[in-house]
Amino acid sequence: MGQGDFNVNPVHRYRYIVPVAAYVVSLPLKAVYIKLWPHRAESTWPLQLAFFIVNSFLVAFYGWIVYRLLRLYSNQLTAILIGLIVVLTSRWAAYIAGLPLTDSLYLIAIAALLYSIKTNDKILFVLTVLLGGLMKESFLLFAPLIFVAGPFNWVIRTGLIVLSICILFGEHAIIDALFPFQEIAGVKSESLMDILMRTTAKTFETALDLISVRGIGEIFTVLGVFTFLLAYGATNKECRNTWKTSIEKYYWVFFGCILIHALISGDVARMFYFGSACYGILVVKVIDVVLSKNSFNELFTLNKVK
Description:
This protein is mainly α. Helix content is 75%, strand content 0%. It has 17 helices and no strands. Helix 12 (227-235) packs across helix 13.
């Protein structure tokens, strides 16, 4: 798609924003390649580097939004920075930034949605809900979250969801009209029934994987060693109380939406990383508790021998 070919897998052919941006960035890069490495100029090297530049910028912008979000939950700079480190040092952050994927823009849409809900930012909320589906069709899976949380009443939020669906289908219709799909080897169109059957089978398969050792290992790769911070918070009464009193209940709905992403996709770890902003908030509250005087002493002071 970065080369103008929309005759690709139907799952990807409507996610054109990042590929088009990468193509634009690749044009001056190609001129540089012609000067320095002429034998690579006509290959995909300039486009691959352009994807890396665009996705790295977008992941960095995602990190900035997450930073702004974390500041709303803590006034401890140390806790905020640790929470941000947890989010941006995940292997999946490097994966999304380094490969020609479109997930970087989707991360921004998710973070913007959470930030607009928390800050009651009506303009950002409307823009995110209406345009989120253009970042990735699975944004519509956040419809339950949009329905229960946001700066407007539920009637207006429901209307925004409907408009978002209309915009998404309109975009699909325009692309199909401009670039008619042609079946070629390895690429074929699917009916709605085909998609439903494939998704159902994948959901059951993924659900079984989640309770396996392999599935648990996949989940561990989302945050790596920082997973133990969440484990500590889950087993510490003061941390649990802080989570209950400081973090809104709608994050349960948000996590449910992330779980649906994982079950439908089958790419469990990458889908769970889409919830990294939430994990960052949980970590921030854990660090807040740890940095408080009493909990810090409790964690690092050995019990006295009687």
